[in-house]
Design goal:
Blueprint: H1 9-19, H2 30-46, E1 56-60, H3 66-74, E2 79-84, H4 87-99, E3 106-110, H5 116-119, E4 125-131, H6 134-137, H7 141-150, E5 152-163, H8 165-174, H9 178-185, E6 188-189, E7 198-199, H10 203-212, E8 216-223, H11 241-248, H12 250-263, E9 275-281
Parallel strand pairs: 1-2, 1-4, 2-3, 4-5
Antiparallel strand pairs: 5-9, 6-7, 8-9
The structure holds S-adenosylmethionine.
Length: 285
């Protein structure tokens, strides 16, 4: 794996600084609504039942708190820390927590995941998660996963949802960007010219990273597998016409969601997923 950020922390912070105020508008894009429903289905099935009463979570690279919000509202017994590099992003998470009455259960901390073990020294979590391109942006995904694994209680869970190499290459080829697709196969790349360069992953690489961090890999999945985002879905607004037409029809949306859900646990569809989902746990001994 190629380590080292192609983008500096300042570049990444400045990119998300510019996105922060409109970031939650992704919740109105039909493709991401589908993807988020699937991610929540996977969590409801494989993760929530394994969490103890009163669990503590760490939302690593939590951004505007879209996923802290889901956990904090679905499980009022939980409490957690959202840790992120970009104050403009987690400012929205704080405001959301205040609006929805769980600010006393969610602490927002500014920091680089490259230093997370030191920054959160003394804290231990039942659940650590990083969703949507967070591991893609860090200098060394192996180092960050190892640090996050060290913050788990025995039996604690680490859940990652990260961009796939194969999907990125397909996406760039649909836009005629052959050079970029070739880079994607080496594990680096991006979806637009304006975003910072990222790490891109494969299922077996994710297994190896988690195992090298001392974790047991319980599940690797990948989704959505039947529909992929177009260029519009890399922006915070707008939708690819065919996706908006198809997913804008409520009945069609529900049928596609049901098809995708039926594929969540099939090991033979993993590599076709747009994003890769890995559930790993810290041994209890
Ligand atoms: C694509 S957003 C995802 C936000 C959130 N996890 C979600 O799914 O909505 C990526 C987030 O990772 C944060 N991030 C990127 N590099 C980071 C680093 N080295 N340390 C901490 N946070 C980082 C960014 O500030 C941004 O908020």
């Amino acid at each position: 794996m190629t380590d080292g950020p192609a983008a500096t922390l300042d570049e990444i912070r400045s990119y998300f600084d510019g996105k922060a105020d409109a970031y939650d508008d992704v919740d109105a894009q039909p493709y991401w609504v589908l993807s988020d429903e699937l991610l929540w289905s996977a969590l409801a099935k494989s993760v929530l039942p394994r969490l103890p009463e009163g669990f503590r979570f760490l939302d690593a690279g939590g951004g505007t708190g879209r996923w802290s919000h889901r956990f904090a509202t679905a499980r009022p017994d939980s409490s957690g820390v959202l840790y992120d590099l970009t104050p403009a992003m987690f400012g929205h998470a704080r405001a959301k927590a205040e609006r929805h009455g769980y600010a006393d259960r969610l602490a927002c901390r500014e920091g680089d995941l490259g230093q997370v073990a030191e920054e959160l020294d003394g804290e231990r979590f039942d659940l650590v998660f990083n969703f949507h391109n967070v591991l893609g942006f860090v200098g060394s995904p192996q180092d960050v996963v190892t640090q996050l694994a060290g913050l788990l209680k025995p039996g604690g869970l680490l859940v990652s949802f990260v961009p796939s190499r194969w999907h990125a290459a397909w996406f760039n080829l649909t836009l005629g960007r052959t050079d970029e697709a070739e880079r994607n196969l080496t594990g680096r790349g991006r979806f637009t010219d304006t975003m910072p360069d990222m790490h891109l992953f494969t299922p077996e690489q994710l297994r190896a990273i988690n195992e090298a961090a001392g974790l047991r890999v319980d599940l690797i999945s990948g989704f959505p597998v039947l529909l992929y985002p177009g260029y519009q879905e890399t922006q915070l607004h707008g939708s690819t016409r065919s996706l908006a037409d198809l997913l804008g029809d409520r009945r069609a949306f529900e049928r596609i969601l049901a098809m995708e859900r039926s594929l969540l646990d099939r090991p033979d569809t993993v590599g076709r997923g747009n994003n890769l989902f890995v559930l790993a746990s810290r041994p209890t001994d």
